[in-house]
Amino acid sequence: MASFSEKMLDELDKGQLKEAKKSFAWALRKDDDDTLFNLAQQLYSLGFLKQAQRIYEKLLAKYPDEGELRTNLAEIAIDNGDNDQALTYLSEVDKGSPAYLQSLLVAADLYQTEGEFEVTEEKLQEAYRIAPDQPAVLYALGEFYYLIKQFDKAIFYYIALIKAGYAEFDKVDIAGRLGMAYAQSGQFDQALAYLRQVAPEYQTTDIRFQTGLTQLHLGKVKEAITSFKDLIEADDQYASVYPALAQAYSKLHQYEKALKAAQEGLGVDQYNEQLFAQAAAIASHLDQPKLMQKYLARAHELDPENIRIALAYSNFLIQQGRHEDNLKLLAPFIEDHDPDPQVEWNLAQSQQALEHYQAAGQAYDAALSSFQDDPDFLRQLIGFDQEAGRSEQLKKILRHYVDLVPTDDEMVDLLDSLTD
């Protein structure tokens, strides 16, 4: 004869909720403790938390030293958002209990969700001291260190899990985790070796993307392009793949394909200022200044405080001879008490072109300490000093330049003419 617990589960399976409720009440009265415990586990897995809790509480009253009951009740409390109650249950599990190890893992997970990573690590390391070969412990440690970006430590525990015979755990492919961890730590050869081992059913878009990135880092550009294109075919809304594909084509100097990839990416993510800037850089190789203007202006509009984008736009404006526009662009950055030296240099070039010699001289002088050993900067400064009639400054900069570039005959001759 079937138990009331079995009857209830059968009724739930058939959607007979009223009948199942009655059978549950009879099960609490009539079924033996083992049957009730199994019912609670089944109900918990089905999402009937209140009913599972009632059974565990009933059994705990009868078996107050049974740590597994407290651990199970703690998990229900966590699911209900009652973390304080969960910690109370977990703290009551005796260290000598067979359930103590599981209580440490549950506590670690709870502290991790609350961002208390030091306590999380303490709990997991205690679990590791108790059961260093327990796969659940190895997996939990690997996942924890992966989460907090301590990838070398994560790698240690993932490898230990594989050595223990677990290619996957908790529906996670461990080779994939290892590949991602190795890639994040800059060990790309090892990363690619593991990423290639990922089973087809675990080939997520993230895994495919990281495979392509790793191939790109290793100089396997054509393989990376294939990986990125396969990813787009599987999920053309995966926005991160387009900048990477554009970068790969650029490495092969296939700029038309690179621009197309960037433009397709902008169709997916029209608010990506970095991709607009990348598209502008690609357009420069194709001699398309109108596209450069369009993309740089949009990138700057999306992130006006981004100094790298602003400088790329500034360089473009200088090349186009649009010096008034460049001064307007750089004005907010000059208001900074400690502006970027490159901003000063770019400002100086436009001020010089507009014959604002005093302002240009101040900007060149402000940039000099940062670029005093940069031949390109010094040559521009020499030209400005000649134009502005700063003779003493000119001789000083010329001497330093000739020391740096003694093979520049033009500058050597100029210095000789000034010192004769």
TrEMBL record:
Taxonomic superkingdom: Bacteria
Protein keywords: Repeat, TPR repeat
Repeat (TPR) residue spans along the chain: 239-272
Transmembrane segments: none
Keyword Chloroplast attributed: no
Record's keyword annotation contains Transmembrane: no
SUPFAM superfamilies: TPR-like
Pfam families: TPR_16, TPR_19
InterPro entries: CellSynth/LPSAsmb/PSIAsmb (IPR051012), TPR-like_helical_dom_sf (IPR011990), TPR_rpt (IPR019734)
PANTHER family, alphabetized: LIPOPOLYSACCHARIDE ASSEMBLY PROTEIN B (PTHR45586:SF1), TPR REPEAT-CONTAINING PROTEIN PA4667 (PTHR45586)
Protein name, entry field: TPR repeat-containing protein
UniProt source species: Limosilactobacillus secaliphilus
The organism's taxonomic lineage, starting at the top: Bacteria, Bacillati, Bacillota, Bacilli, Lactobacillales
